[in-house]
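Today's session is about reading a structure prediction critically. Students often jump straight to the picture, but the first step is always the sequence itself: look for stretches that repeat, for charged clusters, for runs of hydrophobic residues. Only then move on to the predicted structure, which in these notes is written as discrete structure tokens rather than atom positions. Here is the chain we will use throughout the hour.
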Amino acid sequence: MAQQPTYRFLNQASCDGLLAWRRRLEGNRGERARLRRAESPDDVLLTEAFFNFLQEMPEKWSEPRNLPSSALVAAVLAHANATTRDHKEAVSFAAQLATAKDGSDKPRMSELRFRQLQKSHDPTEFFRRLLRAVRMLDGNVNILSLANDILHWMHEFEKGVYRKPQDRLAFCWANDYYRTLLKRQQN
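Below is the predicted structure for this chain, in token form.
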């Protein structure tokens, strides 16, 4: 069994809260449907389902400055499958986008769409492109990696990108995506 990776923007309490919330959400179809109908992260802020999400999460997720990030995480993860075990493996969200569809040699997300996802200009555009990516993976995503990446993107959106290129989300994603493509091509 692979060791659970560490995440820059998620501590153990946040990981446990996210997993517990996704399991609970799976049993509450109405709440999940309300989150899935959101057309933007701002729509999520106005739902009871979002406040239930915050109840499962550590207190810092409820702080006013963190609400936009929390809403984006809740909105996107409502589209993921809770039963997947991918979150326990070391496969990142970006690497999952480079995996092949069954019986195909093409990645689930093309390089063009991948670059577009990386270049999202605002949270609403990022949200729409993330939903497309989750659908391309049939909802079977590493929810902890995805949540961490959303928080990373929001941090860079609000505060600017990191000085060191290797700390930037775009670099991390490109590294995981293209390494996975290269491994597939070599096999």
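Discussion point for the tutorial: The first helix runs from residue 12 to 26.
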